[in-house]
Amino acid sequence: MHGRKLKSAAKYKGLFAMTGLKINKIIFSGLLLYLFVVRVSAQQINIPRIEQMPNLPAPYEMRDWKQIQLIILITLALDFIR
Length: 82
Description:
Number of strands: 0
Number of helices: 3
Mean pLDDT: 76
Shape: elongated
Oligomer: single chain
Radius of gyration: 33 Å
Structural class: mainly alpha
Strand content: under 5%
Distance between the termini: 79 Å
Low-confidence stretches: none
Helix content: over 70%
């Protein structure tokens, strides 16, 4: 019975060895197709109305997060009611 399993396993191994090249071709073709689709679909188009908008808003004000952190820390440290 043990010898019977080895023969059937060898038969399947030979079957996969013959189709291994085909499977590799299919995987490679699928990968190329995927890369082509991603490359084509990832192109950016220019919309004239959007291009007229500024990149940054005019009254743009960057927050000083270190200062805000210090204020919060002081508020929590000196708040004896909580």
